[in-house]
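A further point concerns the way the authors explain their paired sequence and structure data. For illustration, here is how one protein appears when written out as sequence plus structure tokens:
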Amino acid sequence: MVYGLSAFSQGRPPVGGTGMRVPPKDTVKLQLADSLVSKESGLSTTVKRYAKDSVVFNVKRKLYHLYNEAKVEYQPTTLGANYIMLDWGKNEIYAHGVKDTEDTTGLRVAGKPVFQDGLETYHMDTIRYNFKSKRAKIYSIATEQGEGYIHGKVVKKDEYDNLHLGFAKYTTCNLAEPHFHISAKKIMFINKKSALSGPFNLVVHNIPLPVGFLFGFFPVQPKQDIGTSGFVMGSYGEQRNDGRGFYFNDFGYYHAFNERLSNTLTFQFYTNLSFGVKEQIDYSKKYKYQGSFSVQFNRNVQSNQYGLTGKKYNPVDHQFNIMWNHTPKSLRTDRSFSSNMNYMTNGFAASNIRTSNLSAVMQNNVGGSINYMRNFGKLYTSTYSFSVSQNQNDFRSSLGYSMGLKQFNPFVKPKNQVGKWYDSFRVGLNLTGGIQANNTVMNRSNSYTEYNIAGVRNSPYTEAEQRRINELNLLIYDLTLSLEQRQAYKEELESLQNPRLKGLSAIMKNSTITNSYSVPITLPNIKIAKYINLTPSITMRGDLYDRSLQYTYVNENREITLSNGNKVFVNVDDSIDTLSYVRDKEGLHVNMNSRSGGVVVIDTVQGLNFANNMSFGAAMNTRLYGTFNLGSKGRIQALRHTLNPSIGFSYTPQNKNSVYQQVRSDSLNSYRYLPKYIGGSGASSRDAGNISFSLSNQLEAKVRSRSDSSETDVEKIMLLDNFNISTSYNIFARKDLNEFALSDIQLSTNTSLFKRKLNLNANATLDPYMYISDPEMKSNLAGIRITRFKWQKGKSEFANEDVGSYLSRLTFGASTSLNPQVFRGGSTNTPAVNRNTNLPVNPMDYVDFEIPWNLNMNYSANYQKQGLSPERWTMSFSFSGDVSLTKNTKVTFNSGWDFRFKQVTLTTVGIVRELHCWMFSLNWTPLSGSAMRSGGFDFTLRPKANLLKDLKVTRRRAGSY
């Protein structure tokens, strides 16, 4: 053992609290160390002692006195201070700081104790700690617990690592004098996982607020943990726009099962007795996947509504929402599972989603998909999917699969596929199928206007239905009626004009099952004149159907028994004025006269049927280059033009015998081909062939660099990223059937200027065919499209008439994103933004205080003119961004101008202020050009730390929609 010179003297009394002085510093500074294991004490590890000045040992009392930057280590605890006394007899340690000799006021204390217990660090004025019992008594402690900081004047630590604080402060501010804190006479930290407080109140800048609570519970979240179970405080406010009144939303309980699984149960209540409940499960597995599943049910009471009779009542609307998002995180390419499902009932978004994103509130289409992919080896692939889509009226759902073999060469081993003409031969196999269900009524009457179908009206509506439709068209615009009455009439009108199946059984009965295969064959690539690539291909396809349609034409008295046992009775009687249908227990009775033209009876026969077809194709492409040298004197030295022409041909022979039935449709012996099957490949009843053409262009320049004086240092600049022209021609189009051979000509271009700071894009559609006025329907402003080209106008009978312009559609857009980083040559990409619009917008999550300003601008123009109709222009300019007023204050904005309506578009202004340990945000919607929303605001003031994020002040007004 090594001791100081006075180790065996009477010893120096301990400094501080005893009134004894500190010995002068030695002229030779020594780092003194000692270690000892005592068998009598029962300590299991070595106690190490250090002191920069001196170590004094009192043999009789077994006391060590350590002076100046002293430290004692007893794993896993370490204590450092300017004075430490170690009582070996009691297994205790006592430490405190000493007065700073350089401080003339005599108030400053240097070397206060710092106690480390594992990963925890405690700062204090004095401490007395027992190594054996692990109990301690501390004065004026300050330590970090998870995301929070605790301060206490008198603290007791027990053997279970619980801290009992008297006159305590709890805060998430890391300053010695915090901006805010929770003040309580007693706070107990239980096993470093949670804090339990007696009566407390909130103190801001040492000013107690007149808000108190009887008790408090605060979960202490470790920094590397996903969370700690606890209560979710929620928010409160008033919902004015729909009369639900005051609310208390999103309060409940959060439970973390472990680092990979957690559950949140929240509720919402309104003063008009509306309520809701939401269950959400979040899960994850490192490097594998992450996701969440939630179910929400709401019972909304609409206050002060008026029924169709004018009586006041409060209708109840039950709404629900199911969300499932699953994202794979694995790098594996042989399998994956993903889900993006968001299914909700009508009106759920407008009633429950609190966000400043109007597209989320007003969304009409909901649904999603679930996908699973599994590959075996390098060739076999399989995918399985489920999708559902619904808007206000239509419902569609499908369950499908796809399996197959990737294209491969069956004649040559993969390692030897080099250099032979047949090496590019490829063959593959694709199997697809599934079941599709929707609520669309099959065989709708207005789909068959040229012949009669048994049981289906050829006229869209009966006389009674047409009268009711005319009445409803007037009632929905009657402003003397209540909004609820007009909405009810709109729904009735929609049900008459677009009838839909109701009930799951009816929808499933209307479902179709399809299965098909295809064998794509890529023939060897052929070189023409070295530079032209010709690639022929063949595709064989087959379809398997679970039902077929059989047609029977009847124009006489006859009884027909269908495959399902139902009967159709056709009665021809010249005394009957009009064609009519009557259903009874016997079956369907068709009553008509001899002048009605007969009727077609359709029988749906259950059973497997197979049909196949074949198609042929070829693609030819090349690449041409043109270089224009401009000399070396100017900055632009050369221009390079790249031209990519491509021509494709496809041919599908007619297959009418296998997928179509020739059916007589009227008494004039007119025949037509009607499909035998529902769904499938849609094979044509006659030959089909198309020639497609596309031409793409790129233009780049070789420019001398400004950054180097050397004339040989050049750089390439893209002047035109792409300019593309495409169209197609149907070689089997028939003019007598008013079929158009040449498709619309599509043009598109995009480029960027000023080192990609400004992005430009444009698209146009050219219509090559003439339009003439419709003499029978004056409301048809576009006119009738005929099978004659516009460039033939001068040689036609329409030489002096308007036949429409070539340009039918044009869009142009320009956008830029500017900030100081862009002008310094950095990336123009803006930070990624969370697009989950179902969550309330938090401006603090999307503002970067390191960037002084950010400006995004977008200009768009759209032109449309179909045939002879008047042209229609729409133009808009929008901008968004943020500006730093101070280092911690930003103003955010989003607005624009609609040139057509000459009004300001949806405008939002926000202020975000970082208050060290607090955050303040205010979003205001002063106006909206569409009058869909205006006057709303969202105010939030809360701590930045997630631990106390529910300790907030919120005020929200949704505005008017």
User: Anything to note?
Assistant: The chain has a mean pLDDT of 78.
